[in-house]
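About this split. The held-out portion is used to measure sequence recovery: a designer receives only the structure tokens and must propose an amino acid at every position. Recovery is the fraction of positions where the proposal matches the reference. Here is one held-out target exactly as it appears in the evaluation file.
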């Protein structure tokens, strides 16, 4: 299925990988230019309307944006969020990582892209974004929104610049940050870390009125777009 307006073209592409067929939601500017790509990694509720909205927002900012449905091998994200959480919690981490690495390769060769690609992950997806920074030496940039930090012993493997967003009240996730930050500093990695005062976990999710923080969401989004522009466009 493909849709378009004067600015964006959207679709739900499928592509084959060595481990099977994957699919997700894609949006790209409706012009003839070549754009950098962003892999948007969803929360533990799967590929839902909120994530699709984020994909379109990244595209409106000038990027080809794609969100893999992590549950594609199981048929796709179900409507019931509790069921989606249960299914995502049962995913094999190695298989899931390979699927996301395949998605990065898909974006690198997609017509209309310029070969530059970044990962941006939220919550569960933030953890995956960090894992991709460790696993893919060709990743051009990675953004982590309140995701569990990668194993500090793997920090030497990171080559991509990082942008890290955390909510001040998110104690569970924040407990993983100091060791990660220390390792990034010790190994001379390029990163920027922002702690948003008064914000809690999932502060960017405007479909969660119990968690959404408009100030933190606005500030972090501006930083994210500026970071991606610098790393994928101006710095290319």
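Reference sequence for scoring:
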């Amino acid at each position: 299925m493909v849709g378009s307006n004067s600015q964006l073209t959207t679709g739900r592409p499928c592509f084959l990988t060595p481990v099977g067929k994957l699919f997700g939601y894609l949006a790209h500017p409706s012009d003839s230019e070549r754009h950098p790509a962003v892999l948007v990694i969803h929360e533990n509720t799967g590929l839902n309307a909120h994530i699709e909205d984020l994909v379109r927002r990244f595209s409106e900012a000038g990027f080809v944006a794609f969100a893999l449905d992590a549950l594609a091998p199981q048929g796709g994200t179900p409507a019931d969020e509790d069921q989606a959480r249960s299914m995502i919690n049962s995913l094999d981490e190695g298989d899931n990582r390979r699927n996301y690495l395949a998605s990065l390769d898909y974006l690198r060769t997609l017509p209309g892209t310029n070969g530059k690609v970044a990962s941006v992950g939220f919550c569960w997806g933030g953890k995956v974004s960090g894992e991709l920074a460790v696993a893919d030496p060709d990743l051009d940039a990675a953004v982590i929104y309140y995701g569990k930090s990668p194993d500090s012993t793997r920090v030497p493997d990171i080559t991509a610049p990082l942008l890290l967003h955390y909510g001040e009240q998110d104690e569970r996730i924040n407990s993983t940050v100091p060791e990660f930050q220390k390792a990034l500093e010790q190994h001379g990695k390029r990163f920027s870390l922002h702690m948003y005062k008064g914000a809690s976990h999932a502060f960017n999710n405007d479909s969660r009125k119990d968690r959404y923080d408009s100030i933190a969401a606005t500030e972090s989004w501006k930083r994210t777009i500026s970071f991606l522009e610098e790393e994928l466009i101006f710095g290319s």
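Annotator remark: The CA atoms of residues 163 and 183 lie 15 Å apart.
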